[in-house]
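User: Quick sanity check before I run a bigger batch. Here is a single chain. Can you write out its predicted 3D structure?
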Amino acid sequence: MSNHLEIVTVGDLIWQNGLEYAIEGIRKACDYGVNLSYEIFGNGPQLEAVAFAIHDSQLSNCCTIDLTGKIRKGQKYFNIFLAPAVALTYKFKFNLENTDSFHWIVTSIVEKEDLLIMNENYTLVPRWDSNAIANVLVRRYQRGDY
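Assistant: Done. Predicted structure follows.
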């Protein structure tokens, strides 16, 4: 087992998807010593801004953007799926409960500071909370959950 978190996000490169919070959470996790790589699969009108945010956060060595916008069939090399702007619905929660190949970090539709729900398949964090994202990554890294 490698001592490395491999994280992906898939979606349109627009700020409404909370990418700035994901990037900031990744930077904070790195500041705490988490060894990780972060790949964003997507394209969109904010491509240059997202690329600049990655560069400005000094994450160019561990963050990349794949412009195809999708994970290719059979491509399973990540262990955390970070969805910074997904509202957790019943149907989505059911799909998360039946996933055992990787861990999801998803955001709640609410912005409650004390919201943090974690089980073996997913972690629900407050909406667009980079500190909560970083804390989950640090916790999983320290426990060896990757």
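The CA atoms of residues 111 and 132 lie 11 Å apart.

User: Great, the batch can go ahead then.
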